[in-house]
Design goal:
This is Phosphatase. InterPro entries: PHP_dom, PHP_phosphatase, Pol/His_phosphatase_N, Pol/histidinol_Pase-like. The structure is a single chain. The chain is an alpha/beta fold. The chain has one domain: Metal-dependent hydrolases (TIM Barrel, Alpha-Beta Barrel). It contains ten helices and eight strands. Strands 1, 2, 3, 4, 5, 6, 7 and 8 form an eight-stranded mixed beta sheet that branches. Helix 1 links the parallel strand 1 and strand 2. It is globular. About 45% of the residues are buried.
């Protein structure tokens, strides 16, 4: 399986990451990726860039070194109703939004399965969200059987996050369950690295191994096909309004 896009990455604008935007794009070009999404953290993450960073992403060319560069954000889920820290002015202009739970931005110290299920069900209703980020986190387990089909129904891509295999190892059993249910319910997924340094852009070794173990259908992996990924963007992303993208 050939993965053609990496749509969850961070630059030095997220101050716990270590590469510039141009370094991330160059790494994607070296890996011969079709696309990369730059998704620095929303403002509730300590050290995150502010509103003007995301509003000014319009100055970034959508094509650099032959790579499609999506202007994005990893927005933080900030309340028990599925509220996020995506600025309203950015919601309709950014190309790509990943929604994730991070403990430093999330208010509940001892969440129940029922509470997190409600959070994700509300996220599924949010028309600005494209990707459900690293939702296998053990501390924030939810009713996978209920929520996964809803993600599929509302056009959300369920992320298999390569970073979970090294930085969130306790979440791996849940990641496997989630992938099994995506297969069962024919819910599209996306593989992402969550890279915080250019060296790991486009590296999907552990994720691909898990999909092989599960005999996961390639046709459900949106970023395993340029045509499939391009079609998703045309239907769901603000980039569809960019004349340069339309001409491709």
């Amino acid at each position: 399986m050939n993965i053609i896009a990496d749509t969850h990455t961070h630059t030095i604008a997220s101050t716990h990451a270590y590469s510039t935007l141009e370094e991330m794009v160059h790494a994607a070009a070296r890996k011969k990726l079709y696309a990369i999404a730059i998704t620095d953290h929303g403002y509730r993450m300590p050290g995150a860039p502010g509103r003007w960073y995301f509003e000014n992403m319009r100055v970034i060319p959508h094509y650099m070194e032959g790579v499609l560069v999506l202007h994005g954000q990893e927005t933080n889920i900030i309340d028990m109703d599925g509220g996020v820290d995506l600025e309203p002015d950015c919601a309709d202009t950014l190309d790509w939004i990943v929604a994730s739970i991070h403990d430093v931005a999330f208010p509940c110290e001892k969440p129940t399965v029922e509470a997190i299920t409600n959070v994700w069900m509300n996220i599924a209703k949010n028309p600005h969200i494209h990707v459900i980020g690293h939702s296998g986190t053990k501390e924030y387990a939810y009713d996978f059987e209920t929520v996964i089909p809803e993600f599929g129904r509302t056009g959300k891509l369920v992320e298999l996050n390569e970073g979970s295999f090294t930085g969130r190892k306790k979440s791996i059993p849940n990641c496997k369950k989630i992938m099994e249910l995506c297969k069962k319910h024919s819910v599209p997924i996306i593989l992402n690295t969550d890279s915080h340094i250019s060296a790991t852009v486009g590296c999907f070794e552990h994720s691909l191994a898990l999909l092989k173990e599960l005999d996961f259908p390639e046709e459900l992996v949106v970023n395993a096909s340029t045509d499939r990924f391009h079609a998703y963007l045309k239907e769901h992303s603000a980039i569809k309004n960019d004349p340069i993208f339309q001409s491709k």
